[in-house]
Amino acid sequence: MTAPDLDSLRLLVFVDELGSIGQAAAALGIAQPSATKRLSTLERRLGLALLNRSHRGSGLTPDGRVVVGWARRVLDEMSELLTGAEALRAQREAELRVAASMTLAEHFVPAWIGEVKRAHPDRYVGLEVVNSEHVAELVVQGKVDLGFVESPGPLPGLATRKVAADHLVVVVPDGHRWARRRRPLTAAELAATPLVVRERGSGTRETVDAALRRAGAGAVTPLLELGSASAVRNAVISGAGPAVISALDVAREVADRRLVPVAVDGVDLGRALRAVWPAGRRLTGPAAELLALAIRR
Q1: What is the DSSP letter of 295?
Q2: Gene3D superfamilies in the record, alphabetically (predicted)?
Q3: Neighbours of 297 (CB within 10 A)
């Protein structure tokens, strides 16, 4: 199946919102015949009837309503991607300089920056993506105005505020012996099993180590140390070994059974995602606005 283009998805969403192909075409500045052809091509590519066409307008079929919901998510995520990419390019000359750890940068921060940009189109926001330890260093050194970290422990020299919650999960590929295990793992079993892990200094690695220590099981036994969640995820899918990773980073793989979550008894793998800034300093201006927005969202 050939993937649909974004313009066709955007057109379909406008048909749903405006009630006709003609109005959707006008909103996008294209001719109605071109819009009709583009929607027909979209239906052929997906192998689905998306629209009921009549002299009174065009409405979505049941399949069309489902596809429009997915299309909106794709368009929203593309908008976040473009906003995040712009922020990465702008980091050196930005009016607001932000650093974020991997999970926050992938799942939260671009949406927050996008909302700031919608309210202040001329505001120049720069984003640097590094692990939690490096984020803290950049904030302490004054190289960024605001940071976002996953680290669970104290952060000397920094004030913090919770902006989101996350939960780590143990995952294995479908063929792994743990995939059909009926009893939860114990803390001791998890600590004794070599795992695919993030590098030292990452918030995910620190969270796992801290959780196992609280359970009296010691620290993680590394099998592989990798520098990103995607690298960890792909290593587990390929059969390298189990991993403990953010549920956000494996939601799609768990949904389609490429990865299977494994229950663990007596280990708290929840964590707070936090904003950080220099201790004793009151945030003002764009940094204060971004923090307030992140807390609200």
Answers
A1: H
A2: 3.40.190.290, Winged helix-like DNA-binding domain superfamily/Winged helix DNA-binding domain
A3: 11
CB 84 within 8 A of CB 127: yes
Q: Residue range 237-250: average pLDDT?
A: 95
Residues 210 and 206: their CA atoms lie apart, in Å, by 6
pLDDT digits (tens, 9 = 90+) for 6-16: 888 988 888 88
CATH of 80-161+273-296, one of 3.20.20.10, 3.40.50.300, 3.40.190.10, 3.30.70.3270: 3.40.190.10
* Domain covering 164-272: architecture: 3-Layer(aba) Sandwich (3.40)
Tell me which H or E stretch contains 8: helix 6-18
pLDDT at 123: 81
Interatomic CA distance for residues 62 and 67, integer angstroms? 9
Of the candidates 207, 202, 209, 255, the one whose C-alpha atom is nearest the C-alpha of residue 228 is 202
Domains in the chain: boundaries: 6-74, 80-161+273-296, 164-272
- Look up the pTM and report it: 0.69
CA angle 74, 236, 255 (to 5 degrees): 40
**C-alpha distance across the termini of the chain, in Å:** 36
Of 126, 87, 80, residue with least CA distance to 106: 80
Quote the CA–CA distance of 174 and 261 in Å, as a whole number. Answer: 9
Contact call for residues 208 and 167 (beta carbons, < 8 A)? no
The Cα 47–Cα 49 span in angstroms is 7
In whole angstroms, give the CA distance from residue 6 to residue 186. Answer: 46
Are the C-beta atoms of 217 and 187 separated by less than 8 Å? yes
